[in-house]
Design goal:
Blueprint: E1 2-13, E2 16-25, H1 28-40, H2 42-52, E3 61-66, E4 69-74, E5 81-92
Antiparallel strand pairs: 1-2, 1-5, 3-4, 4-5
C-alpha cells in the first residue's frame, strides 16, 4: 500500500457553503507546507475572523486545532457558520499508478 495526502476544505459562511480538495501529495512534508500556506492565507484568515466574529446571541465561538487539522464554528450554528481544513491520508493499492509532474 502507498500513501497519498490530500488537503480538504469545507466551509459555510452565512449559508454560503462549499468544499474542495485543494491538492494531492505523495509527500507528507509538502502536504504540511501547503496546509500551512492555505490556513495562513489572507482570504482564509478573513473567513475565519468573519465566522468567529459574528457575536450571535446565545452562541459561542469554537475552535479546535491539531497538527493536521483546523476547525472553527459557531456553537449551535455549525451548518451555517464553519470552516474546516485538514490533511487526510489515503491508502492506494500498489497497482495504482500515479504520474507525478
Amino acid at each position: 500500500m502507498r500513501k497519498v495526502y490530500i488537503i480538504s476544505e469545507d466551509w459555510c459562511d452565512r449559508g454560503d457553503c462549499g468544499s474542495q480538495v485543494s491538492k494531492v501529495f505523495s509527500s507528507l512534508e509538502k502536504a504540511n507546507d501547503c496546509y500551512k500556506n492555505i490556513l495562513n492565507a489572507k482570504d482564509t484568515q478573513e473567513l475565519i475572523n468573519d465566522i468567529l466574529g459574528r457575536n450571535l446571541p446565545n452562541n459561542t465561538d469554537c475552535m479546535e486545532e491539531t497538527e493536521d487539522s483546523f476547525e472553527c464554528w459557531v456553537e449551535g450554528d455549525w451548518y451555517e457558520n464553519h470552516y474546516t481544513i485538514e490533511i487526510q491520508t489515503l491508502y492506494l493499492d500498489d497497482s495504482f499508478n500515479i504520474n507525478e509532474a
